[in-house]
Amino acid sequence: MGLELDDLTAQVAETKTVMKSAVVLIQGLRQAIIDAGTDPAALKALTDGLKEDEDALSAAVAEVPA
């Protein structure tokens, strides 16, 4: 029972960390959109940056063994 509880506790802690990271990401993205406003160059730079991040994340996920 102790090992199962330790595993569950670790999983809960990891999930909370991931959730907090997602909140920070969403807040940062929201602020970046606000900061870019309607400036086409700033919006393009934001779009390009998000695409680069998306590609990097996709590559990292693809490397994780199933």
Description:
The chain has 66 residues and is mostly helical. It has a domain at 23-66. The chain is 89% helix and 0% strand. The protein is built from 2 helices and no strands. The chain has helices at 2-36, 40-63. Helix 1 (2-36) packs antiparallel against helix 2. The longest helix is centred in the first third of the chain and has 35 residues, at 2-36. It starts with a helix and ends with a helix. The relative contact order is 0.06. The mean pLDDT is 90.
How many distinct helices?
A: 2
Which parts are unreliable, with pLDDT below 50 for 5 consecutive residues or more?
none
Q: What oligomeric arrangement do these chains adopt?
A: single chain
Principal-axes geometry comes out as elongated
Helix and strand composition category: mainly alpha
Number of strands: 0
Helix proportion range: over 70%
Biggest sheet features = none
Average per-residue pLDDT, rounded, comes to: 90
Distance between the termini: 27 Å
Topology:
Blueprint: H1 2-36, H2 40-63
Please provide a brief summary of the model:
The protein is mostly helical and 66 residues long.
